[in-house]
Structures are given as C-alpha cells and as structure tokens.
C-alpha cells in the first residue's frame, strides 16, 4: 500500500510517510509475535486463531469506511440536498487533482468532521450538522481541505489498521482464554499448560495493546499537523483554517460532557478532539496536538505565504 499522495497536488510529507511505514512495521511485528505466542501456547487451537485473526483483519480493512460511518451516524448526501458542501468539495478536489470522495453528513450538534476509507476511490468525507451550522464558507473550506489531505496521504487507512491490530490482540486473548481451546494430552499436562497460558497470554496482550496504543497516538498527532499544513498550503488561507480550529474547539467545549464522552472513542478520526488533553502528561495519550501547537504552525505558514 502506497503511503504517498500520488495523483494529488497536496504537498507530499516525507515525515508522515516515514512515520506511517515505521508504525505499520512495528505494530505488524508486534501482531505477528503475539500470534506466534498464542500458537506456541495453544498448539491445538492454532488453525482457529489464524483463521479468526486473519478474517477479522481483512473484514476491518475492507469494510472500515462502512463501520466508521455507521458508528458515527453518517449518511451519504446528494448535491441537491447539500449544494454548498458538495460545491466546496468539488472545487477542492479539482484544485488538488484527486478523485472526489463520497460526501456524508452526521446529524450531530458537535461541530466536527472526519474522513475514512481504505483508498481515495473508496473514501468518504463527513461533516456534522453542528459544523455546517457554525462555520463560515472559507472556514468550512479549510476543514474540508484538511480532511481531504488525510484521504490523499492515505493515513486514514494506516490509522484504521494500526488501531485495529491493538484491539484484535485483546479479542484473540478472550478467544484463547474463554473459548475452551486450552490443553491437550493428559490432564496434569493440560492443567499445567492452561495455568501457564493464562498467566502469559494476558500479559503479552496488554504489552501489545499498550505499545500499539502509544505508536498510534504518536502517528495521530503528527498526521493532524501534516493535514493542517497540507490544507493551508493547498487553499493558501491558513488563517481561515486557524479560525475554524479556534471556533470548533471553543464550541465543542460547550457540548454536554455526556455527549463528548460518547464521541471520544472516535477522537482519532475527528478534525478536533471531543475531549482535549488538559496537561502535558495527558497530552502523551492524546490523538491531537494542542490547539496552541496547531495555531502556531498555521501562523508560521501564514507568515511564509505572506513573504
């Protein structure tokens, strides 16, 4: 899978490409090692382990756009229903020389947007009704350019796969521990193997999940900065994107906490996080850079374009 924004005028980002390749390699290595541990400890169950893990991985990759759309309440809309939204995306796609993704809207008062899909031809860009209601046209253009850059750089697919592998380790652990696959041979040997497996497998699973979690968070924060840069350079209006960021972040803070907690599970896909990290310690686990970091970058780009 190519990670570079081929057939697109979005500025290529070697830093993002390198991080995506490294993240996928490391998480893939973890996943293969974890599967190997399960196979070694649960010899009789290895065909089922491989079948389930492979099947879940393929299903997640192939249907990631549909899964994400349904989870976030998005529904595809026509140009007749949302002419301004489609018109803006048409202009940006023509400017970026990239295929137009499907366009969707989520009936949600939280102002936000996301993009998903395993490749540009299968991608979808979605905005919430809360965002459409609150943003000016040039601000909305900046947000949509940001989301389209995720599609062009193909980091959406990488984030989907990387995030899923950590979760899959937990699923496989439950299957191994509670699926009745433990033990073979005589009873004493079976009991001994079961005890060892029940100690080792959860520990390895937690390590795999923790490492994959940190790796995906690091990649997620960088890809948001990369998308901001690419959007600002494509539209030539970093100030509009900065204005959208400031407005969206401020408006999200006014949304009821219960609604934000429900949306927090999908933070990695959103333009702005539903709940932001409050200090340096929690920032390590955040899916997005701080608002200040994003605004500082856009300010530098604005100064460069002004020159």
TrEMBL record:
Assigned keywords, A-Z: Cell membrane, Hydrolase, Membrane, Metal-binding, Metalloprotease, Protease, Stress response, Transmembrane, Transmembrane helix, Zinc
Membrane topology qualifier:
Multi-pass membrane protein
Binding-site residues for Zn(2+), renumbered to this chain: 146, 150, 224
Q: GO CC: one term?
A: plasma membrane
Keyword Transferase found: no
For this protein, the Enzyme Commission number is 3.4.24.-
Looking at the record's lineage, which domain of life comes first?
Answer: Bacteria
InterPro entries (alphabetical)? HtpX_protease (IPR050083), Pept_M48_protease_HtpX (IPR022919), Peptidase_M48 (IPR001915)
What range(s) does the Peptidase M48 domain occupy? 81-299
Query: What Gene3D superfamilies does the database record attribute to this sequence?
Result: Metalloproteases ('zincins'), catalytic domain
Q: Where is the active site?
A: 147
List the GO molecular function terms: metalloendopeptidase activity; zinc ion binding
Q: Per its UniProt record, what Pfam families does this chain match?
A: Peptidase_M48
> Which cofactors are reported in the record for this sequence?
Zn(2+)
> Where does this one sit in the cell?
Cell membrane
One Gene Ontology term from the biological process aspect of the record? proteolysis
Q: Cofactor: bound how, per the entry note?
A: Binds 1 zinc ion per subunit.
Record-annotated membrane-spanning stretches: 21-39, 45-63, 156-175, 195-215
State the HAMAP family in the record.
Pept_M48_protease_HtpX
What family name appears in the similarity comment? Belongs to the peptidase M48B family.
Q: What is the recorded name of this protein? A: Protease HtpX homolog
- Recorded source organism is Kitasatospora atroaurantiaca
């Amino acid at each position: 899978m190519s990670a570079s924004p081929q057939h697109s005028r979005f500025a290529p980002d070697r830093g993002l490409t390198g991080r995506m390749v490294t993240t996928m390699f490391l998480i893939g290595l973890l996943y293969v090692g974890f599967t190997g541990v399960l196979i070694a400890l649960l010899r009789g169950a290895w065909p089922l382990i491989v079948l389930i893990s492979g099947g879940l991985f393929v299903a997640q990759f192939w249907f990631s756009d549909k899964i994400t759309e349904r989870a976030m309440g998005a529904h595809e809309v026509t140009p007749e229903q949302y002419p301004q939204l489609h018109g803006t995306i048409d202009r940006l796609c023509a400017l970026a020389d990239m295929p137009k993704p499907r366009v969707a809207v989520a009936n949600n008062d939280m102002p936000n947007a996301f993009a998903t899909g395993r490749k540009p031809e299968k991608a979808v860009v979605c905005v919430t009704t809360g965002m459409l209601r609150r943003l000016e046209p040039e601000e909305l253009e900046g947000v949509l350019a940001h989301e389209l850059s995720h599609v062009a750089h193909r980091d959406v697919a990488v984030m989907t796969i990387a995030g899923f592998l950590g979760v899959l380790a937990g699923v496989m652990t439950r299957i191994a521990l509670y699926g009745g696959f433990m033990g073979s041979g005589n009873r004493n040997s079976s009991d001994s193997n079961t005890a060892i497996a029940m100690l080792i497998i959860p520990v390895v699973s937690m390590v795999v999940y923790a490492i994959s979690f940190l790796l995906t968070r690091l990649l997620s924060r960088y890809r948001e900065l990369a998308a901001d840069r690419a959007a600002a350079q494509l539209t030539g209006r970093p100030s509009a994107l900065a204005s959208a960021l400031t407005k969206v972040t401020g408006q999200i803070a006014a949304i009821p906490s219960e609604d934000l907690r429900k949306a927090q599970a999908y933070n990695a896909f959103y333009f702005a996080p539903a709940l932001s990290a409050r200090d340096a310690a929690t920032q390590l686990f955040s899916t997005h850079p701080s608002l200040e970091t994003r605004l500082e970058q856009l300010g530098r780009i604005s100064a460069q374009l002004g020159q």
